[in-house]
From TrEMBL:
Residues 109-130 are annotated as: Disordered. GO terms for biological process: late endosome to vacuole transport via multivesicular body sorting pathway; protein transport; vesicle budding from membrane. It holds the Pfam family Snf7. It comes from Eudyptes sclateri (Erect-crested penguin). This is Charged multivesicular body protein 6. It is found in: Endosome membrane. One of its GO terms (cellular component) is multivesicular body. Residues 9-36 form a coiled coil. Keywords: Coiled coil, Endosome, Membrane, Protein transport, Transport. Belongs to the SNF7 family. InterPro entries: Snf7_fam.
Length: 130
């Protein structure tokens, strides 16, 4: 009877080992499936991104971008030339008039109010100054 029980125990242990191995294999398969699903989502995202880039490239060609950059550089150069002309167009008389106006403005700002001629009140001990 003991021998039969030991054989039964041994059989159940083997069955348990097989079941644990099968569960481990199933868990591995589930992880592989989940990882594959994530990979598929990434690939789908890359595919959509690639299609969007292709559409953007169709809308804006390299020649168009180069043309826009060239026009911008031309406009900046033109504005710089205008600035140089305006900066150099002041005569000596204009410079003198500007300096006089600047002196007048700074003098106006520097004028201070007159100081009162009344004496200050004497400090009374024990009171707080105002």
């Amino acid at each position: 009877k003991a021998m039969l029980l030991l054989k039964k125990k041994r059989y159940q242990e083997q069955l348990l080992d097989k079941t644990e191995n099968q569960i481990s294999n199933l868990e591995r398969m589930v992880q592989d499936i989940e990882f594959t699903q994530i990979e598929m989502k990434v690939i789908e995202g890359l595919k959509i991104g690639n299609e969007c880039l292709n559409k953007m490239h169709q809308v804006m060609s390299i020649e168009e971008v180069e043309r826009i950059i060239g026009e911008t550089q031309d406009a900046v150069e033109y504005q710089r030339q205008i600035d140089e002309i305006l900066a150099g167009s002041l005569t000596e008389e204009d410079e003198d008039a500007i300096l006089e106006e600047l002196n007048a403005i700074t003098q106006e700002q520097m004028e201070l109010p007159e100081v009162p001629s009344e004496p200050l009140p004497e400090k009374i001990p024990g009171t707080l100054p105002l």
